[in-house]
């Protein structure tokens, strides 16, 4: 996420970041030391996507303050 925002990791820590997943389960989080998007919950494809050919999980990264 830090790389995608073109921010040094130290600068990224200055902003409050939130990860919003679509749905009830929070599958992703932001690792504070590396700036990587990480999984916090195991994803059961059959439960999440049922019989869909392609399974896509969408999330939004919200950054507080100016970037």
TrEMBL record:
<keyword id="KW-0325">Glycoprotein</keyword>
<feature type="domain" description="Cadherin N-terminal">
    <location>
        <begin position="1"/>
        <end position="64"/>
    </location>
</feature>
<protein>
    <submittedName>
        <fullName>PCDG9 protein</fullName>
    </submittedName>
</protein>
<dbReference type="InterPro" id="IPR013164">
    <property type="entry name" value="Cadherin_N"/>
</dbReference>
<dbReference type="Pfam" id="PF08266">
    <property type="entry name" value="Cadherin_2"/>
</dbReference>
């Amino acid at each position: 996420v830090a790389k995608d925002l073109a921010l040094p990791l130290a600068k990224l820590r200055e902003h409050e970041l939130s990860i919003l997943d679509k749905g009830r389960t929070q599958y992703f989080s932001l690792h504070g030391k590396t700036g990587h998007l990480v999984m916090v919950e195991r994803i059961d494809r059959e439960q999440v996507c049922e019989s869909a050919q392609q399974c896509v999980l969408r999330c939004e990264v919200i950054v507080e303050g100016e970037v």
